[in-house]
């Protein structure tokens, strides 16, 4: 699907504030793709689709995820996590996306996972550092993303873990694995 049609179709499915976030993630992802040698078209498509399921009712997200067998047991965790896996199903079935890397980038953009591809890292990070994000520490994450994708991945997943623990939320195993794996990439503070 070409870019304008894709944008219109995504815009139709999201409240305007969420769609504006998606456009900022797209711009950020394309900058990161340029910086770190990823295909910009793939970054654009994955970013445009990453939150495609975000506005769907919980029951619908659950139905879609269950139909896939819920391989990551995401339904056992907070419903905030459900739109990633469900979004990948929608990208595949309703947008005809066949590229497994784009589908994984959509699926894992909230939890992360061990062994993320460059594209997956870009979408995960862009989602957190797009210019509309103003949580404390966002500037640090942006600074890491200026120099190294793996350092930014460590910083972003560490931020997520700290946040989840601070609000006493359960931590999905893929989130923990993403953090641990990012340290083994050699960019963790203790490995420097
Ligand atoms: Fe999301
Ligand atoms: Fe997002």
Automatic annotation (TrEMBL):
InterPro entries: Diverse_Catalytic_Enzymes, HD/PDEase_dom, HD_domain, HDIG_dom, YqeK. It comes from the Bacteria. The keyword Membrane does not apply. It catalyses: P(1),P(4)-bis(5'-adenosyl) tetraphosphate + H2O = 2 ADP + 2 H(+). Residues 18-132 form the HD domain. Its EC number is 3.6.1.41. Pfam families: HD. GO terms for molecular function: bis(5'-nucleosyl)-tetraphosphatase (symmetrical) activity; metal ion binding; nucleotide binding. PANTHER family: BIS(5'-NUCLEOSYL)-TETRAPHOSPHATASE, SYMMETRICAL, SLR1885 PROTEIN. This is bis(5'-nucleosyl)-tetraphosphatase (symmetrical). The lineage of its organism: Bacteria, Bacillati, Bacillota, Bacilli, Bacillales.
